[in-house]
Write a structure and sequence with these properties.
Strand order of the largest sheet: 6-7-8-3-9-10
CATH architecture of the largest domain: Up-down Bundle
Radius of gyration: 36 Å
Largest sheet: 6 strands, mixed
Number of domains: 2
Oligomer: single chain
Order of helices and strands: HHHHHHHHHHEEEHEEHEHHHEHEHEEHH
CATH topology of the largest domain: ABC transporter transmembrane region fold
Helix content: 55-70%
Length: about 600
């Protein structure tokens, strides 16, 4: 029951409500145990003696007890249902808050489908246990104990006789639990894999269709679905073996009661009322033990699900908030300094991506970062907003190590446009306003104009109030990129980080965006990762990375004249593009 201990911090705040549910359970149990007694008295003192008034009195009392039991049980079930839902709601909120605090690196190793499985199906199992399992365990456990006491008080000899098959029931329960435990763990794990496959195929449907791999995607899902079926069939077979066994032993108890009870009735050592009471009370023995199988099933689901849930809550927050965050200026362009920065990804700590990287971005300067694959460009722009922390050295904003700043305060001063633009399934207006929810429509429209969003808005059914669909599926790649750019511009950040921010737009649109962005970038610091010639040439300074270090640094003209790394990259990657864009190559300085 270690998993109950993990859940206890979420149960503890509701302990008074749990105590009230327990009290109601005891009260309901009292009336439930009174019913057979009232029936037995009605038979022995009324029917056996021909006293109709006694029969009528105890029948009325029996009806009253049944009504009291039903009303109390209704109140109890409503309360326990609400209580269980509240506990799991708080647990789900805690999980979601934890997910917001976990570093970006966590999401690179944990599949989205696994997270969804834990947040939904695993928590549903926990909810079933908290809502029904714990209270049922208390109620049925007390019913079993009280029934055994009552039976022995009524007739100890007959009680011992009818309870002879009980060890068979306990054997079935123990055997069932040993087999059902690993079965449910397998089911939970496989459900996570199935959810992951589904999420990947749905999210990547465009790629699947582009490569005509629908059959392959279907076969992958079918494989995981078949494995899921196999795990569930195995689990169902275990459960199917348990309940018929319980039925057989339960029937055996009644057969023993009929045989032993009839013999005692014939001998005159047992009253008819007591015989009928035994018949009713035996259900107080059988039902709790039978339901123990259901409780075991429910408990094992929760026991398998809870560790998976707490894997998220226990995940290390490698990017931690500063204990005493320092305060940054809120206006004016920012300064960024990389000082002897080394960095390796958490899942590959022995392979350094950046190796003693040192450079500065002065306030108001636009610096372009270039480099081949694996040179460390993405790592540079991920370290500034602390999506990752450096392995060595420091990244500073306005002379302050970013690890000494509050995460929210730091990131609110940075506008980021990633290469892969993500949009929420909300309106176009809400997506633009995501980083600055307080912005009025005038500011939204101004930001949209800078990013050339206003160019395609008239073609949308409801203009800025058009819902763009999940992940912006209703827009083209270039349109999504423009929306992401306008979202960053609207924040009015002190520092702009653009990661291939216009790679998906056409050349003409990119030129218009660059022209409009000139005013935005004026008096603002910008770090730009780009491959397009126009963006590179307009930067105040260009830094070329190679193997995690600065290979070259300077303006376009200075670097081209060096005839080094930059010129090689320029000639290999941009000459054809330059001709296509009718850039005058004769104006390019030659070494």
């Amino acid at each position: 029951m270690a998993f109950i201990k993990r859940l206890f911090p979420f149960i503890k705040p509701h302990r008074r409500r749990f105590a009230l549910v327990g009290a109601l359970s005891l009260l309901a149990l009292f009336f439930a145990q009174m019913e057979p007694r009232l029936m037995g008295v009605a038979i022995d003192d009324g029917v056996a003696k021909g006293d109709l008034s006694t029969v009528a009195l105890f029948c009325a009392l029996l009806i009253g007890a049944a009504i009291c039991f039903s009303v109390i049980n209704y109140i109890r079930q409503v309360m326990q249902g609400t209580l269980g839902t509240d506990v799991v709601r708080e647990l789900r909120d805690a999980l979601y808050r934890k997910l917001q605090r976990l570093p970006y690196s966590y999401y690179t190793t944990m599949p989205t489908g696994q997270i969804m499985s834990r947040m939904l199906s695993d928590l549903d199992s926990v909810e079933q246990l908290v809502t029904f399992g714990l209270s049922t365990l208390l109620t049925e456990g007390l019913a079993l104990l009280s029934t055994i006491v009552i039976l022995f008080v009524l007739d100890a000899q007959l009680a011992l006789t009818v309870m002879l098959p009980m060890p068979l029931i306990l054997y079935g329960v123990v055997r069932f639990r040993k087999r059902i435990d690993p079965a449910w763990e397998d089911v939970r794990e496989q459900m996570g894999k199935l959810t992951t496959t589904l999420q990947e195929n749905v999210a990547g449907v465009r790629v699947v269709k582009a490569f005509a791999r629908e059959d392959y995607a279907s076969s992958r899902f079918d494989l995981q679905n078949r494995l899921n079926r196999s795990k569930n069939v195995h689990r169902a077979r275990i459960e199917a073996e348990y309940f018929p066994w319980m039925d057989f032993v339960s029937g055996l108890i009644f057969i023993i009661l009929i045989l032993a009870g009839s013999l005692r009735l014939m001998e005159g050592t047992l009253s008819v009322g007591t015989f009928f009471m035994f018949n009713w009370y035996i259900w107080g023995l059988i039902w709790p033990v039978r339901i123990l199988g259901w409780l075991t099933n429910l408990t094992r689901q929760a026991a398998a699900a809870t560790p998976r849930v707490f894997q998220i809550l226990d995940a290390e927050e490698t990017v931690r908030e500063a204990a005493r965050p320092r305060v940054l200026a809120t206006s004016g362009p920012a300064r960024v300094d990389f000082e002897q920065v080394t960095f390796a990804f958490p899942d590959d700590p022995d392979r350094a991506v950046l190796k003693g990287l040192t450079f500065s971005v002065r306030p108001g300067e636009t610096v372009a970062i270039l480099g081949g694959t694996g040179s460390g460009k993405s790592s540079v722009i991920n370290l500034v907003p602390r999506f990752f922390d450096v392995t060595g050295g420091s990244v500073k904003v306005d002379g302050v190590d970013v690890r000494e700043l509050g995460l929210a305060a730091l990131r609110r001063q940075i506008g980021i446009v990633p290469q892969e633009s993500f949009l929420f399934s909300a309106t176009l207006r809400d997506n633009i306003r995501f980083g600055a929810p307080e912005a009025d429509d005038a500011r939204v429209l101004a930001a949209a104009q800078v990013a050339q969003v206003d160019e395609f808005v008239p073609s949308l059914p409801k203009g800025y109030d058009t819902k763009v669909g999940e992940r912006g599926v209703g827009l083209s790649g270039g349109q999504k990129q423009r929306v992401a750019l306008s979202r960053a511009v609207l924040m009015d950040p002190r520092l702009l980080i653009l990661d291939e921010a216009t790679s998906a737009v056409d050349t003409a649109t990119e030129q218009r965006i660059q022209h409009a962005m000139a005013d935005v970038l004026r008096g603002r610091t910008a770090i730009v990762v780009a491959q397009r010639l126009s963006t590179i040439m307009s930067a105040d300074r260009i830094i070329v990375l190679r193997d995690g270090r600065v290979a070259e640094e300077g303006t376009h003209a200075e670097l081209y004249a060096l005839d080094g790394e930059y010129r090689t990259l320029f000639d290999l990657q941009f000459r054809d593009q330059a001709h296509a864009e009718t850039v005058d190559m004769d104006a390019v300085p030659v070494a």
